[in-house]
Every structure is written in structure tokens, then in C-alpha cells.
Amino acid sequence: MRVMKDKRFVKGRLKSVVYAFKGAYKLVTTEHSIMVQFTIAILVTLAGFIFNISATEWLIQTLAIGLVLGIEGVNTAIEKIADFIHPQYHERIGFIKDIAAGAVFFAALTALAVGSIIYYPKVFLLFN
Hints:
The protein is mostly helical. The chain is built from four helices and no strands. It has helices at about 10-30, 30-50, 55-85, 90-125. It is a multi-pass membrane protein.
């Protein structure tokens, strides 16, 4: 069996990256929860520079930020699909949307714990 090589592989991947940036831009500019979380991500990143956090702390903080923004993006997509499929309230659709929102809640709690572990000792030292 002979496999045909896709000659447009690189061009196709570049298109995928363009679509991903487009989607990220739409999320940040149209969804209020993402706007808030993106703003918090910027502030926490600035705090990382101010408090000169370690490379390990940068890695964990970056993963926490990515986790929250990524899960929020998936939650938004689930909500948009659910609203498209069933615009009126439906108990099962509400259940699905609640579960997706719960996933964001867990990610946000994780990010809050990470931020607290990284920054509490640094802020505490400022006031002692």
C-alpha cells in the first residue's frame, strides 16, 4: 500500500496557527471571563518580574495561567455549542454547562493555590 505525501503539510500547519491566533484573539476580545482572567495573568506575570521569582516558579505560574485560560476557552466553546444546539433552557444542557464551568472553577482554584504558594512568602517578607 502506497501512502501519498501531503505536499501542503507546512502550509496547512501555518493555516492552523493562524486559526488558533484568531480564536485566541476572539476569546480575549469578546468573552468577559477571559478578559478578567487574561488581565489577572498579565498582573501576575508583572508580579513575577517585581518579585524576581525563580525559574521553577515561572514554569509553574505559566502552566497555571495556561491551564485557566485553556479550560476557560474550552468552557466557552462548550457553552456556545450548547446554546447553538438548544437556544432555550434545557435541564441537560444546563447540566453540561455547569460541569464545564466546574472545570474552570477547579483550574482557577489550582491557579490560586499556585499563586498563594509563590507570592505569600514574598509579600509576607515585605511587611516583616
